[in-house]
């Protein structure tokens, strides 16, 4: 049965259509937010997947370029693999949804979102987040929802709910918050050094809106919701746990897991697992469950020791950070490098600078963003965790971690006008035991400063964890969680920022939400740790950006020209600009507003290219001095190229302060000479002089009319010379045209 539901959301109409399309999915919501249209579906397999010990949830966000009136590029002319934005959106949908499914549910579930129409005023990402929650809530798939999501911007100190594309460009905050009826379940943020108190206020402003959306979803579920289906539980039998405790007492498990060395702990657990597998070798029912049972046993042990005894696996205090270290200049030939170590987590970051033409080109649904100037990439090789597997390129986790570090550093980067470079930082994970994304923020900050990128402030990142008990008041926040505390804990609350405020947040949880008290404490703990890292670890190594770039980094100089002169610099079919590039070996980028960026490793060649460009766009006037190449020699004088397609003539009488019998006695083709303009006649012809006395003469003297008798004496000869010169120039023009046509 087709039904339609509508509500006002941030001044725009949100409409949900149920039963109109995709009726064979377990649940489907045809979402309309303004003119943005997204089809969200939820589908589950009939039976659990065999041989797994996790919930197999897949979330997709499919960007169809017809939604913005584009045909995809490339040869195939169809959408290919998911863009980075699609991957990040899918991750944001996944994080609040996953904890609301039963922990022992093993049926495959796919949440698919197809973007079919995009209204710049209404975010397709937000529409898909709401659509996934609605589709799952009305389906027969077990789900402890609904949840809702709201975006918040900050413009001139005012919070904007679900900002438009134009508002996002000028906003100091890009915050996404998901909530259940009672608590906040997911936070994702990028910010321009927003103070902690303002961030907390924004989070709970979004939480209020989420509660209104959930009330709307409840009405849809009441009318269209299906009864949730039963499923085969994959929970570990209590009898197995009891048998394991007989073989491995709780005291032995505590001793096995509570060590500050990851490899030692893993070896201890491996030995315990082998003992249990031997003990249950004859029990075909329990043997396949031993691995998951040992995991659960570890989890209960760690949580109990942390929450009840305030004892962490590596012996640290609850608010203590692991041992820290920072270094720069590890890689001698890169433009900048930095390494940050926190316990057994270590990131080596390399910074590369390039001209703006090497910025990443984007082909997605956002028509306002076509290039990305700053790129942060994160790599996680298997050796970093002592494993072996082939490298197949970055997965969703690597893309997400790189994007988080990128978001944290963007607010402190200089503008293109201040620093006209494309910038890439790459974080290589040398060792991993929790919070590599936050170590990437620290290492990137070090490498950027070492490279001489004039960032406004250093940035650091830290992660806090959480272990909860039976009630909302029974919890413990942990500063700087390691891998074991992340695996067995309830939260991974990552915050990056400067001394002034927050630049990025990402919160993952495994429970049904956080109270305001927990969020405020986590943000406070992250600030304390962040300031300690910057002041006591990073600043002693490098406290501010270097004043000079690396000798191996490209140098870029920028000048502004009249946009109407761009064609003169480029030339017909690029002939002029390509000639400059060939002569100097530089790269030249020109923007529509007349900004010319000249890039190269040799400053002398950069200066030469700029001089040529300036000569091209400068209107030649009497008195100007140029340095140019002799390109033609005639009986009556020499022609000097002042700029491409701009020649002037030095008459034989102006070659020297002495009498010259033959032009070749003074100059030859290819010579570079300094000349001064004596006259630009009515026909645009440029007359030059090389005489030393003319170089310093007053302009009035240089351009005054010659005596009548001198003009009469030379009149016939000059007239003949000019006639011959005109014939020669016309022949040269015809020859050039023939060459171009050929």
UniProtKB/TrEMBL annotation:
Record field: catalytic activity: RNA(n+1) + phosphate = RNA(n) + a ribonucleoside 5'-diphosphate
Binding of Mg(2+), residues: 486, 492
EC main group: transferase
Cofactors demanded by this protein: Mg(2+)
Keywords from the UniProt entry: Cytoplasm, Magnesium, Metal-binding, Nucleotidyltransferase, RNA-binding, Transferase
Every S1 motif domain range: 623-691
Gene Ontology molecular function, alphabetical: polyribonucleotide nucleotidyltransferase activity
Record bears the keyword Nucleotidyltransferase: yes
Region (Disordered): 694-742
Matching InterPro entries: ExoRNase_PH_dom1, ExoRNase_PH_dom2, ExoRNase_PH_dom2_sf, KH_dom, KH_dom_type_1, KH_dom_type_1_sf, KIX_dom, NA-bd_OB-fold
Keyword Transferase: yes
Domain KIX, chain residue ranges per copy: 223-302
EC number: 2.7.7.8
Record's subcellular location: Cytoplasm
Chain's role: Involved in mRNA degradation. Catalyzes the phosphorolysis of single-stranded polyribonucleotides processively in the 3'- to 5'-direction.
Homology family: Belongs to the polyribonucleotide nucleotidyltransferase family.
Name listed for the protein in its UniProt record: Polyribonucleotide nucleotidyltransferase
Gene designation: pnp
């Amino acid at each position: 049965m087709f039904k339609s539901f509508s509500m006002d959301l941030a001044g725009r109409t949100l409409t949900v259509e149920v039963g109109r399309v995709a009726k064979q999915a377990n649940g489907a919501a045809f979402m309309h937010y303004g003119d943005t249209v997204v089809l969200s579906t939820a589908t589950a397999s009939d039976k659990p997947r065999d041989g797994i010990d996790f919930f197999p949830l897949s979330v997709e966000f499919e960007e169809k370029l017809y939604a913005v009136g584009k045909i995809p590029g490339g040869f195939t002319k169809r959408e290919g693999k998911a863009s980075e934005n699609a991957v990040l959106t899918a991750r944001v949908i996944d994080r609040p949804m996953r904890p609301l499914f039963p922990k022992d549910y093993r049926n495959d579930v796919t949440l698919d979102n197809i973007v079919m129409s995009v209204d710049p005023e209404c975010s397709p990402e937000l529409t898909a987040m709401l659509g996934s929650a609605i589709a799952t809530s009305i389906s027969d798939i077990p789900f402890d929802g609904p949840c809702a999501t709201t975006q918040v911007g900050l413009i001139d100190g005012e919070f904007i709910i679900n900002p438009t594309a134009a508002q996002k460009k000028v906003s100091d905050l890009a915050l996404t918050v998901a909530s259940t009826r009672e608590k906040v379940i997911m936070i994702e943020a990028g910010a321009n050094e927003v103070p902690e108190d303002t961030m907390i206020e924004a989070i709970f402003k979004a939480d209020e809106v989420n509660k209104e959306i959930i009330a709307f979803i409840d009405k849809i579920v009441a009318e269209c919701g299906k009864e949730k289906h039963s499923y085969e539980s994959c929970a570990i039998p209590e009898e197995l746990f009891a048998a394991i405790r007989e073989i491995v007492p709780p005291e032995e498990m505590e001793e096995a897991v509570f060590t500050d060395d990851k490899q030692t702990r893993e070896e201890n657990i491996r030995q315990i697992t082998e003992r249990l597998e031997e003990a249950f070798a004859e029990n075909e029912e329990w043997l396949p469950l031993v691995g998951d049972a040992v995991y659960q046993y570890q989890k209960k042990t760690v949580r109990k020791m942390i929450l009840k005894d305030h004892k962490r696996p590596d012996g640290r205090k609850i608010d203590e950070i692991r041992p820290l270290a920072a270094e720069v200049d590890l890689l001698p030939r890169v433009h900048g490098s930095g390494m940050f170590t926190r316990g057994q987590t270590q990131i080596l970051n390399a910074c590369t600078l390039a001209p703006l033409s090497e910025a990443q080109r984007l082909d997605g649904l956002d028509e306002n963003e076509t290039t990305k100037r700053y790129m942060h990439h994160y790599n996680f090789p298997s050796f970093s965790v002592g494993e072996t597997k082939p490298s197949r390129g970055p997965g969703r986790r690597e893309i997400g971690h790189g994007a988080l570090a990128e978001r944290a550093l963007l607010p402190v980067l200089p503008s293109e006008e201040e620093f006209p470079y494309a910038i890439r930082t790459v974080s290589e994970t040398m060792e991993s035991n929790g919070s590599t994304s936050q170590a990437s923020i620290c290492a990137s900050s070090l490498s950027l400063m070492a490279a001489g990128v004039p960032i406004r402030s250093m940035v650091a990142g830290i992660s806090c964890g959480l272990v909860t008990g039976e009630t909302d008041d029974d919890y413990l926040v942990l500063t700087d969680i390691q891998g074991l505390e992340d695996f067995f804990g309830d939260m991974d609350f990552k915050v990056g920022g400067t001394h002034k405020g927050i630049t990025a947040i990402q919160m993952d949880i495994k429970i049904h939400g956080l109270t305001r008290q927990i969020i405020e404490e986590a943000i406070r703990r992250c600030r304390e740790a962040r300031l300690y890292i910057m002041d006591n670890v990073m600043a002693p190594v490098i406290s501010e950006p270097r004043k000079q770039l690396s000798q191996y980094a490209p140098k870029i100089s920028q000048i502004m020209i009249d946009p109407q002169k761009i064609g003169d610099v480029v030339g017909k079919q690029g002939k002029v600009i390509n000639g400059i590039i060939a002569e100097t070996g530089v790269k030249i980028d020109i923007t529509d507003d007349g900004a010319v960026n000249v890039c190269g490793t040799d400053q002398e060649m950069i200066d030469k290219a700029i001089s040529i460009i300036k000569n091209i766009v400068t209107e030649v006037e009497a008195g100007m001095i140029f340095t140019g190449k002799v390109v033609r020699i005639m009986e009556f004088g020499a022609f000097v190229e002042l700029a491409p397609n701009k020649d002037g003539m030095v008459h034989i009488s102006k070659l020297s302060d002495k009498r010259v019998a033959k032009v070749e006695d003074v100059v030859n083709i290819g010579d570079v000479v300094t000349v001064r303009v004596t006259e630009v006649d009515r026909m645009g012809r440029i007359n030059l002089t090389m005489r030393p006395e003319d170089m310093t003469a007053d302009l009035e003297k240089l351009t005054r009319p010659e005596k009548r008798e001198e003009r009469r004496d030379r009149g016939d000869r000059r007239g003949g010379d000019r006639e011959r010169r005109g014939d020669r120039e016309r022949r040269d023009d015809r020859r050039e045209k023939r060459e171009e046509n050929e």
